[in-house]
Structures are given as structure tokens and as C-alpha cells.
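Dock magnesium ion; give full complex structure.
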Amino acid sequence: MAVMKFGGTSIGTVAAMERAIDIVMAERVRAVPVVVLSACGGVTNKLIEIAESAGKSDIEKAMALSGEIRAHHLELVEALVHDPSRREAANMAVMNYVDELEELIKGVGIVGELTARSYDSFCSFGELLSTTVFSQALLDSGCESTWLDMRRVMITDDNFSMARPLDEICSKNARDAIRLLLESGKVVVTQGFIGSTKEGKTTTLGRGGSDYTAALLGAWLQSDEIQIWTDVDGVMTCDPRLVPEAKSIRVMTFTEAAELSYLGAKVLHPDTISPAVQQNIPVYVLSSHYPESKGTVITNNPETLEGTSYSGLVKSIAVKKGQCIVNFRSNRMLGRYGFMAEIFSIFARNGVSVDMVSTSEVSVSLTVSKTASLEAVLDELRNMGDVEIEPDVATISIVGDNLRTSKGVAGRIFSAVKGVNIRMISQGASEINVGLVVEEDDVPEAVQALHHQFFSGSETSSIFEKPASQE
Ligand code: ADP
Ligand code: ASP
Ligand code: MG
């Protein structure tokens, strides 16, 4: 049995939903799958805008946006659900959710304060709506299926916006709630990204979290595979939006895929891999636009990996935008122990995670993602020394297992990006990646030059193929 996850762009429009329905129906012939959906493309961003507007008491703006969300889902129902009574039921369900969203807007708007808890409630409507439409459309296409509220299964801690599942409870819930439905031949359609605390408060797993939901369900249900259906032909040598000639990587190990997602390759949520590793379940990353193409299989199975060993240097280049550099300098650091621990404890206390670090005797530079809690960190740091911020930078990571044993890599990297101002460099920690921090505006030039340096020569191998979109 497969857990199939469809991302926002794979279900955002009538045509996309129709393609996804065909893919699910084809899978059902093999075995009845569990289908996990994201919100329709762009809807989560809109919900965040709604939440922020409501928090600032701009109810008019929030209502206008919720009107757009209502209209979009009603249009999907109109085009995809033909049976009159089913269409009415689908319309009613959409209207009820959007009414609920609007009640929330009014409530938050009147108080004028957005809490972490209500933020997650706002975000949850995207997945609730997409799955409502999809499951009705699937039924309308003659596929036996049922809609499941994931909040009955995914019980999480109360770390809103970044909640994590209570594994034992969830795995029991998943088996109890889903197994019987599958055995009765019903495709189960449910939401990615959302969960609930034990007390019934809605939570979310962090942006892009539907991949994680799919992987968790795969592990809890011991599925044969996890399929991540997206808008690209698998994991590629670089984000094809930055490097149009990027190639698809047909086979990867779990370690390589985990490294890439941690380093910013948005195609997979960073936590997706670990549940799959624990149960040794292969993860397929597949294109919903070209369902026949091979995509990427991520596995540690020696048989699948056989013949795919790669002697080239670099396997992929990942980019993480929205970063900033914090430069901290204090003469008090000179020869003192414990100073670094003090600095890091400030970041830890404020829940800000540090990505890259570079130090000298009296200064330290760190990269962090831009978050609201950064200001609190900076205030505390200013009490200890001089602080300087370089906003709008990105980390470019050059990833490959063979980097650790090869000579001359740094030379090739620096000659490729010689026209670009490099703000920080890191190599060593994970052994299989070299990281460069550059200004965001320089990302396209730097990444294209690096891709050309490492992927246009003789070392390109058969594990890289032209994606279906280039054929
Ligand atoms: P979904 O809505 O399906 O979850 P995402 O937008 O989260 O899709 O992820 C897919 C996008 O990830 C692609 O459109 C691509 O631009 C981006 N991406 C970044 N790095 C990579 C990479 N190495 N390989 C493939 N896609 C990548
Ligand atoms: N809808 C959520 C987001 O946009 C989760 C997901 O798409 O995976 O972040
Ligand atoms: Mg995603």
C-alpha cells in the first residue's frame, strides 16, 4: 500500500485536480492508497495574510481574502463534482469552513491580537478545504473513498506552528482509524500539515509539513512506499527555477536526501526522511505533470542502489534564502572560556536556530533564518558586545558524498564564483557539503556558475537524466 501526497501545485486548479484524481485511480488498481493533500497552491500564504490582517484589526482586508478562498473552492466544486446531491454537499461543506474562518477573523479582529494558537487555526483551513473538494471529486469519478479529519490521528505537542507528533498515540490512532477503511476498499483522503493537541486545539507542523505527514503515516501504517507528487520530475541537481538545465537525480540515499532538504531544497520537508528511514520505506518524488516519468527514488536498499554509485564530485546544489548574518564582536571574548556557550544560549532561549558559524578570537559570525524572535536575540547580544546584521543573504550548499575525499574542490568553487562577493564559507562539519553565504541578489549568478562548473563536464553520470519537462 502507498501513501500518496500531493502538494499545492498538484491540486491547485481544476486541471491539476483532474490529473491527481487519475493518478490516484491508477494507483488504486494496485492497492487502495492513503491520499494526503496540501492546501491548494497559494492558499496557505493567503491564510497567513488573513491571520496577520485580522491581528491588526484589518477585518475588511481579511474578509476580502477569505472571499477569494471561498470563490476558488466553489469553482473547483462546480467543475469537478457533477452529481447534484454530491455537489450540494460539497458546496455546503466549503461554505461551512469559510463561515468558520470568517468567525475566526471577526473574533481575532475585534481583540486585535493574533496568538500562536489562532495562527494555526487560520492555517488549517487550506488543507480542510482542499481535501473536502478532492474527496467529493474522487467519489464523483466513481472511486470509493472517504474523508478523514487528520486531527483525529495526528495528536501533537502544543508547539504551535512547529508541532511534533506524540508518536505512540498517533501510530495507534493511524492503525485504528485507517486500516479498516482501507480494507473495506475505500481510498482515505486526509490533510497534511495539520494536527491537534490532546485538548483538541488545532496545530500545524511547519511550512511544507504535508510531506512530513505523509512520511509519518507511511511509517505508522508500515506502507510499502511513500509517494511525494509535486511539480518537478523528482529531486534535481538544483532548483530548476534557478537553473533551467538542472537534471533529475534518479536514485539517492536517505542521507543525501536528508542533507539536501536540511540545506534548503524545498522539494522535500526536512523531517520527511526520518520516519521513512526507521521503517526502511522508499520515498518516491514524482511529477504530477508527467506521471509517467521516473522521478527520484530515495532508498537505502542495496539492490535499488546497485549500479548507481557516483564517482563525480557534486550531486546537488541547494539554496536557502531568507537568511541573515549576525556579526558579533567583543574584546571580552579574548582568552575567555564559556563566552561562546553564553552566546548560543541566547539563541536557544529565544528559539532561534543557528545554521552556519564562523569564529575568530574576538568575533563570531552566524547565519539564522529571519524570524520574529530575532529582535529579542539581538537586544540581548547588544548587552554583551557590538552587533551588526547583514540581512537578505542566502546559503548555497554544494553537496556530494565524494567531497570529503577529493582535492581541488575549493579551487573549482572559487573560480566558478569569482565575480560574486562571498560573505561566509563553511566546510567540514558534515563532510559532504561546502556552504557559501552570498547576498540574495547574487544567488542566480552564483548558482548557475557552480552548476555549470560541476554538471556540464565529463563527470556527469547516468544517474542524472533530463527531466520530462526538457524532453
Ligand atoms: P509542493 O507544493 O508539491 O510541496 P514545493 O513548492 O514545496 O512543492 O516543492 C517543489 C519545488 O521545489 C519545485 O518547484 C522547485 O522549484 C523547488 N526545488 C528546490 N530545490 C529543488 C531540487 N533540488 N530539486 C527539485 N526541486 C527543487
Ligand atoms: N499548506 C502548507 C504550506 O503551504 C503545507 C504544505 O504545503 O506542505 O506550507
Ligand atoms: Mg512542499
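Observed: The CA atoms of residues 70 and 95 lie 7 Å apart.
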